[in-house]
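Suppose a colleague, Dr. K., hands you the sequence of a protein chain of 144 amino acids and asks what its three-dimensional shape might be. Before reaching for any lab equipment, you can write down a predicted structure in token form. Begin with the sequence itself:
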Amino acid sequence: MINLKLNELFKNKCLYKKNGIRVNSLGFVSILNIFFSVLFIIFNTYLNLYSIIKLKKLKNNDIYVNYFKHISTTSIILHYIKSTILSILEIIFFYNMAKMCRGFFGFLLLIIISIIIYTINNYIFSDFNKDLDLLFITKPPILP
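The predicted structure, expressed as tokens, is then:
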């Protein structure tokens, strides 16, 4: 019973043209969603590189060393890899759902999955997130 309903949710719903060929193109909203996901990956790369550079500068100058107990260069890199893999999987999933003319359902499913992942991340990595926020708030040291 449940298997039949899941098969219906992931069934191709694309319409046919007059000559009998199925329409398999992406819509504007789907392309826009994929574009913003790629833009997020680029922005996330920039933020992680910036935070690694800033953390190294602060630790090399022995400034604010006691504040960053739960954050390191390795933890930032691992966090970045996890975020990038999840974003790539999101793009692949949404692209396939949009090709089956199920873009809205895929979008809603991604929102639900993202909320669950965000909640788990905030629960598990709360100290890391606090230190990362503190890293962005602190002013860079004035070097002589």
